[in-house]
Amino acid sequence: xxxxxxxxxxxxxxxxxxxxxxxxxxxxxxxxxxxxxxxxxxxxxxxxxxxxxxxxxxxxxxxxxxxxxxxxxxxxxxxxxxxxxxxxxxxxxxxxxxxxxxxxxxxxxxxxxxxxxxxxxxxxxxxxxxxxxxxxxxxxxxxxxxxxxxxxxxxxxxxxxxxxxxxxxxxxxxxxxxxxxxxxxxxxxxxxxxxxxxxxxxxxxxxxxxxxxxxxxxxxxxxxxxxxxxxxxxxxxxxxxxxxxxxxxxxxxxxxxxxxxxxxxxxxxxxxxxxxxxxxxxxxxxxxxxxxxxxxxxxxxxxxxxxxxxxxxxxxxxxxxxxxxxxxxxxxxxxxxxxxxxxxxxxxxxxxxxxxxxxxxxxxxxxxxxxxxxxxxxxxxxxxxxxxxxxxxxxxxxxxxxxxxxxxxxxxxxxxxxxxxxxxxxxxxxxxxxxxxxxxxxxxxxxxxxxxxxxxxxxxxxxxxxxxxxxxxxxxxxxxxxxxxxxxxxxxxxxxxxxxxxxxxxxxxxxxxxxxxxxxxxxxxxxxxxxxxxxxxxxxxxxxxxxxxxxxxxxxxxx
Length: 559
Prior knowledge:
Number of strands: 21
Shape: globular
Helix content: 25-40%
Number of domains: 3
CATH superfamily of the largest domain: FAD/NAD(P)-binding domain
Largest sheet: 8 strands, mixed
Strand content: 15-25%
Oligomer: single chain
Number of helices: 16
CATH class of the largest domain: Alpha Beta
CATH topology of the largest domain: FAD/NAD(P)-binding domain
Structural class: alpha+beta
C-alpha cells in the first residue's frame, strides 16, 4: 500500500470563504493543495451566512458607475486610518481579479444585487448597487455523497424541515396569493423540497452561504484537492525561522503535514477563543454569537506561536449584529441575528432599560450594536427590547417568529416573547418604567404619522429605506404601534466574526513583531487583521475581503 502523502505545495487551515478561495485559486494555479478543517463539516461561518460578497468594481457590475478611485474614496470615508492605505489598495486591485478568475475557472458564480446600498450610503464614494454580489443558487444533488460535508444553515433560517430561502424567495412566499409569478415560484419551491425530503435529510436547493460553500466544494472536488475534516491544526512546524508545515490532530493522534510553499491560516478568527475575548472585546463581553462553537481561534493561535501579532488599530475588534436567543428542543441555544428582516420595518422600536429609544432601528447591524454599547455606558441597555404590536407581528414576523405565525404560545411559554394587552402592562412585565415606554411609543407614533423621525432620522438614508417596506408611505421605515396586544423580545449584542487578527502585508504574509514577513505563513479572512479596520462598510464585506486575501495569499504562494 502506498503511504499517504504528507508534503504539499500549500496547506490551508480552515474552510470558510478565505480558506476555500485560497485552496481553489492555488489549485487553479497548479499547486498541490491540502485543506484542513477542524469540524466534520465544511464552511464555518460562511455556510450559515447570507453568502454575499462585497466586491467593488467587478465584472458583475455592468452599470459602469463604479471605479477603484470611487471605492477608495468610500473606504477612506468609512474605514479611514483604522487600516493601512496600501492594504486598501491591495484589496481594491485584487478583488475584481479574484471574481473574474473564479468565474472563468470554477463553479463559483455570483450576480450583482440590482439594488443594495452600502451601509454608509451617505458617505463619499458610496453606491446603491453593483458592489454586493449574491451567490447563485446551487443544486446540492450535484455533490452526491459529499453533500453531507456542507455545514447546514441555522435551523431558524429554514422552513418546513430544512428548506432554505433567500431574500427573493421570502418575497415570493409572502406574495404567493397576491402575484401569479410569486405563486408559481412558491409552488415550484415546495414541490422541489417535498421531493428532496424523500431521499435527503434537508433541502438540496442551496442558496446564500450554503450555495457559496457548495460551489467551492464542487470545484475543489473536480480538481482533486485533498480535504481533511475532523483535523485540528495545533502548531506550526518551524525550521530556520520559516513555517514548513503544521502539526495536527486526527482522531486524537498527532500528524505532521509539510509544505513547500506555505501555510494559509483561515480558521475564522477568535470568536470563541477562551482567552482572547475578554481583553479584545468591549465590556460587558458579549455572551452570544451565532458563529459555530468550534471556532476557537486555532488559526490565530498558530500565527501567534510562529511570531505573529494581533493588530491594535481597529475601530472594533469584532463585527456585530443584534441577536435574540431561545432554547432549542435539543438543549442548545438558538442565537438569531437580526440583520434586516424585522427591525427596519415600519412599526417597531428599540428601547433601553429605561424604556426610551436610543437608536435608529433601521441602521446597519454593526452600527446598531455600537449604539447598544454607547447606550449601556449611560443607561442599562443589555438587553434592550424590540417593541411592536399585533399588526407588525402578523405582517413581518419578529426574530424567530415568522410572519403569520399561527400560534405564539410556545414563544411566550419559553420566555422568548413577552406580551401585554396595553403598552403599560407590557412595560410592567418587562420591568420597564410604564410611563417612559408609553411616552416613547406615543412620540414614535407621532413620527409615523408625519413620516419624519425627528429623534433618530429613521428612513432618511438609502440603506434604511432599502430594508423598510416600500408599500408604506411616506416613510417605508415608520409605522404606528397601536394594535393590541403588544409584544417585545430581548436583544443582546452578538459578534458574528472578529475583525482584529494577525497583522499582514499586502501579500497576506503574516508579519512578526518587527514588521517583517514570516516566511511560509499567510493569513486571510477573520484570522487576518481586517482591511475593514473594524468598520462594516457594506453587505458581504467580510466575505468579499476574505475571498480577496485568500486569493492574494494563493497567488503569492504560486509565485
